[in-house]
Design brief:
This protein has 3 domains: 16-84, no CATH class; 87-177, Immunoglobulin-like; 180-243, 2-Layer Sandwich (ligand-binding face of the semaphorins, domain 2). By secondary structure, the protein is α+β, with helices and mostly antiparallel strands. An 8-stranded mixed beta sheet has the order 4-6-9-8-7-10-11-5. A 3-stranded antiparallel beta sheet has the order 2-1-3. A 3-stranded antiparallel beta sheet has the order 13-12-14. It has helices spanning 16-28, 35-38, 43-46, 64-67, 74-77, 179-182, 186-189, 230-243, and strands at residues 53-55, 59-61, 78-79, 87-88, 93-96, 104-108, 119-125, 128-137, 140-143, 154-162, 172-177, 198-201, 206-209, 219-220. The protein has 8 helices and 14 strands. It is elongated, with a radius of gyration of 25 Å. The longest helix is centred in the last third of the chain and has 14 residues, at 230-243.
């Protein structure tokens, strides 16, 4: 893993760079109405409108050649084609409740300058928003670990912010699940959709993911056979006889 176990929290101010882009645009070219371009908040929206261009450090503008950092080739830093807009390659993110998890996603980023920018991973679940530092390695983004606790299954969204603009990329779905709440017995546990990685742990008699169970032989995964402990079977037989 590219990270130590130290976690970071990052506060992102969504409008700072956006307002800065509008102000600089007005100072450089006051006679041009920049409101149309500056109203677009994502790369894909921006480049669909002529003469708007997307600048990685400031956002959407109609004078990208003046706003983009000096010394960086405009064909790389000043985007005017939708196919050049970076985005997260779609795919669900599944997080087990109570487990410290490293999130990694594949990234389409034709502009190499993206790899040199600060990456922020954002997870939004209900009214909670978490920001984590990330790093780009070989077209993949690795986010610092996070632990999310829930009893119910929660669905939300994940996105990346990089450069000076927020929001920047597309969103992908996030699901936080709790195996123990999805199943209360072995039979129902091992039939849960395998994408959740739930299995029955005999030592604690609970439905959990494998690394929550002590001993590999104690854990039965998807479509495996449920085995009942002899002592449990004897107790069940005794309870039945006593009831009769």
């Amino acid at each position: 893993m590219p990270f130590s176990h130290k976690e970071y929290k990052v506060t992102v101010k969504e409008n700072d760079k956006y307002e800065r882009s509008k102000e600089i645009s007005k100072q450089i070219s006051p006679e041009i109405n920049t409101s149309a371009c500056s109203s677009f908040r994502t790369c894909s929206e921006c480049v669909k409108s002529v003469p708007c261009n997307w600048c990685h450090n400031l956002g959407c503008t109609n004078i990208g050649d003046k706003l983009c950092p000096y010394g960086i080739a405009l064909k790389k830093s000043n985007i005017n084609k939708a196919k050049e807009c970076p985005y997260i390659i779609p795919g669900p993110i599944l997080l087990a409740s109570g487990i410290r998890t490293f999130i990694d996603v594949k990234l389409y980023a034709p502009d190499p300058i993206i790899s040199d920018m600060n990456i922020i991973c954002q997870i939004k679940l209900k009214n909670r928003v978490s920001h984590l530092k990330g790093v780009t390695i070989n077209n993949s983004v690795y986010c610092h670990p996070i632990v999310l606790n829930t009893k119910e299954t929660l669905t939300g969204s994940f996105r990346l912010n990089w450069g000076g603009v927020d929001p920047y990329s597309n969103r992908v779905p996030v699901t936080v699940f709790n195996c123990e709440e999805l199943a209360k017995n072995c039979e129902s546990c091992i039939t849960i959709d395998p994408v959740f990685r739930c299995g029955w742990c005999k030592s604690i008699s609970s439905c959990v993911i494998a690394n929550q169970c002590t001993g590999v032989t104690n854990w039965s995964g998807n479509n495996q056979t449920c085995t009942i402990d002899k002592n449990v079977r004897k107790k069940e037989q005794f309870d039945f006889v006593a009831f009769v």
